[in-house]
């Protein structure tokens, strides 16, 4: 077997590093070298970071209050946004003109290109708000420059109450994306702790834990979630409902991570560094969290990244079925409830496509990112 340190630089890995550099590189350095080869995962990381930034600064980015209604623009279609008008830089949207269809006796909207509505950046907010719940603000990222009666700004259209879909999708990202992170964090705590105990100590503890995990995994996931979600009292405040839904989507998610952690512990508990730590007087819990868990932390990160999409989809499915989060809470699943009515979808298809597009983009990006992290965490894959 050829020692990598003996290879000449031109035959070594292609990261401007010599074979000796690779041989002494740390675990996270090797992890990054392998991850950045995955171009789709890198692009997905940028998309995910952007979406979480949008969720964090939703109050600043959304031009309107997501619950503000306007009876004049119920089911208003998306307005075309343009950066130029008459050859000059002037952000604007086309004014909507309402007409009555005498055949169907329904209101219809048409764009009036002769009456552009000026849109500006860093405009004064219709009402003051707190950025991140802490900083008082009176500025929005964009909005109407000089709003007059009849002016509107519906980039993604409006719903049956005249609420801005763009503002609601942006605010919905706060719940839908955060519920995945909170659920994954809870799965991390349960999976690493219970799986670590099972794999490190073995014996009756391992037997009892594995049988309990098998019992949980034998229960159909969707009916279990539906049954638990249906038991939530209707009168609970939104914050408590959000917390309970997070618990529900995390109830099963930790079992697969616990099994993977158990397998890692079974293979590492007899290694020399574990024996040395035990002889040095370190406690069993200290060995688990100071030596064993950090040794495969990159693998845990990859596994959790792949678990976030399933939790987002679980919350979306429960809310769409009407047994998860409920208004006035805004999430992508709650927004999709508007698409349950075929007549509404036929009249306003943006009610379905806009939140669905946000869900598809986030789930695909998280899956691609998870694939890249998983490949980078594979200890048997070559860095070159």
UniProtKB/TrEMBL annotation:
A GO CC annotation given for this chain: plasma membrane
Family recorded in the similarity comment: Belongs to the binding-protein-dependent transport system permease family.
Localization: Cell membrane
Superkingdom, taxonomy of origin: Bacteria
InterPro entries for this protein: MetI-like, MetI-like_sf, OppC_N
Classification via CDD domains: TM_PBP2 (cd06261)
Membrane topology: Multi-pass membrane protein
Chief place where the protein resides: membrane
Pfam families membership: BPD_transp_1 (PF00528), OppC_N (PF12911)
Residue ranges constituting the ABC transmembrane type-1 domain according to the UniProt record: 173-370
Regions crossing the membrane: 40-62, 175-203, 242-259, 288-312, 318-336, 348-369
Protein name stated in the entry: ABC-type dipeptide/oligopeptide/nickel transport system, permease component
One BP term from GO: transmembrane transport
PROSITE patterns per the UniProt record, alphabetical: ABC_TM1
Keywords: Membrane, Transmembrane, Transmembrane helix, Transport
Source species: Neorhizobium galegae bv. officinalis
Entry keyword Acyltransferase: no
């Amino acid at each position: 077997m050829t020692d990598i340190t003996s290879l000449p630089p031109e035959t070594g890995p292609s990261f401007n590093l010599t074979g000796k550099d690779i041989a002494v590189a740390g675990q996270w350095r090797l992890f990054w070298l392998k991850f950045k080869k995955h171009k789709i995962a890198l692009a997905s990381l940028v998309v995910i970071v952007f979406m979480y930034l949008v969720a964090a600064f939703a109050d600043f980015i959304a031009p309107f209050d997501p619950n503000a209604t306007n009876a004049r623009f119920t089911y208003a279609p998306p307005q075309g946004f343009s950066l130029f008008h008459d050859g000059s830089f002037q952000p604007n949207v086309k004014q909507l003109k309402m007409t009555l269809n005498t055949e169907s006796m329904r209101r219809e909207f048409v764009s009036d290109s002769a009456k552009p509505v000026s849109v500006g950046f860093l405009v004064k907010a219709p009402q003051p708000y707190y950025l991140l719940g802490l900083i008082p603000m009176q500025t929005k990222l964009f909005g109407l420059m000089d709003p007059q009666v009849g002016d509107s700004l519906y980039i993604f259209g409006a719903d049956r109450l005249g609420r801005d879909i763009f503002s609601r999708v942006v605010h919905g990202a706060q719940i839908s994306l955060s519920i995945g992170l909170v659920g994954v964090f809870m799965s991390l705590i349960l999976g690493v702790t219970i799986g670590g105990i099972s794999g490190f100590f073995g014996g009756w503890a391992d037997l009892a834990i594995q049988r309990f995990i098998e019992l949980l995994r034998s229960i159909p996931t969707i009916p279990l979630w539906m049954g638990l979600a249906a038991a939530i009292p209707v009168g609970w405040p939104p914050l408590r409902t959000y917390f309970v839904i997070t618990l529900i989507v995390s109830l099963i998610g930790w079992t697969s991570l616990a099994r993977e952690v158990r397998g890692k512990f079974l293979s590492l508990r007899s290694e020399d560094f574990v024996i040395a730590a035990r002889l040095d007087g370190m406690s069993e819990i200290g060995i688990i969290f100071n030596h064993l868990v950090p040794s495969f932390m990159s693998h845990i990160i990859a596994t959790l990244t792949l678990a976030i999409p399933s939790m987002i989809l679980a919350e979306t499915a429960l809310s769409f079925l009407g047994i998860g989060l409920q208004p006035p809470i805004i999430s992508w699943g709650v927004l999709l409830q508007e698409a349950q009515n075929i007549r509404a979808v036929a009249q306003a298809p943006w009610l379905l496509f806009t939140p669905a597009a946000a869900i598809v983009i986030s789930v695909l990006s998280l899956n691609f990112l998870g694939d890249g992290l998983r490949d980078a965490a594979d200890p048997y894959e070559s860095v070159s």
